[in-house]
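Support case: user asked for a sample of complex input and structure output to validate their parser. Sending the pair below.
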Amino acid sequence: MIRFEEELTQLQNHLLEMAGHVKKSIHLSMQCLLDRDESLIPGVLADEDRINQLEIRIDSLATRLVALNQPVAADMRLIIAALKINTDLERMGDLALSIAHRAGELIRMPPLEPFVPVFDQATLVEAMVELSITAFVDRNADLAHQVLLSDDKVDLLRNQIYESLAARMEADGNAVRRALLLLFIARNLERIADHATNVAEDIIFLVRGIDVRHRNEHF
Amino acid sequence: MIRFEEELTQLQNHLLEMAGHVKKSIHLSMQCLLDRDESLIPGVLADEDRINQLEIRIDSLATRLVALNQPVAADMRLIIAALKINTDLERMGDLALSIAHRAGELIRMPPLEPFVPVFDQATLVEAMVELSITAFVDRNADLAHQVLLSDDKVDLLRNQIYESLAARMEADGNAVRRALLLLFIARNLERIADHATNVAEDIIFLVRGIDVRHRNEHF
């Protein structure tokens, strides 16, 4: 039984490490865009690699835990939550990599005026990733609720970014390609926020047994 | 043990039903766009509702199955695959709904020339959803491989659609809003294809024990 507890802790530590890499790769990708510094991209690729290794390790660890220990219902719910969080974190890693590639493309073009709201969005999204995983480790539904509130802010920023970039494209055909890349970066950030929200919802379910999914769909 | 098999079959039938609703809602959304017929949208909303109900049902059925039966490793892998497929199908439902909303917005604007590749993409994606769930029910890794091949076609079409819509926006500021909506519809379809690909990869892992994830990342 001690062994089971240890492996459960290991599972959580892996998820924590994954979340750390996700945060770091969002940060590096946006820094690459801000500083127009392509040399930051290999760091994102290294994070992505590690995230993918961890995903596979967590899946097999969780499957083994269940198969060998026949956990009680509460532990089982925890392991299923870990599996879901694993999938969400891996997708976040993919999205961060996608931001890095788009940033890499953008900085090879003449600079567009800095769109500050995109960087605000990134800061908010990084905090959501951190908060959601802390909520999991601490089994803290209140922290998880804060993630849901941040997601509403991300959606507001998304609308603002969409409006200003669409207007920019309408006004100047030469800005279309760059504005599209920036718009896709903003959408990647928004999708990372959605995954952090999924994690938060899973934690609320885990802690309180309330299913808060489908309370507020994203269109 | 008969009860366990029955419940496992029920789990699969729920996933099949979900996949049916996903396919139908993609189809209705695209039909709404093609026929400029807003009356098709409530059908998509009804599908989405049912998909969400099924998602919650499948999660609780799977959790109960594991907690009460302590399944052997092979059954455990099957149940974990079912849980992942469940999540993917639910996201596909969300994306189909998002297509419906964008189609609804588009048809309130003056018509843009029909972008045939978007409809080709939708047909391909519907077939991928069907194929991936059949591959699961039949435990057929070859069918699952076909899904991976289709995903490459979807990515090619995506590039073609992106190019022609970006050029359209560069040429005519008045087309920007409509071209953006169409571009987002194309991206929603591509994301549905990615989820069908996730399902296919899970099935290959389930049947052959080979992990084909991260073989070909989407940027």
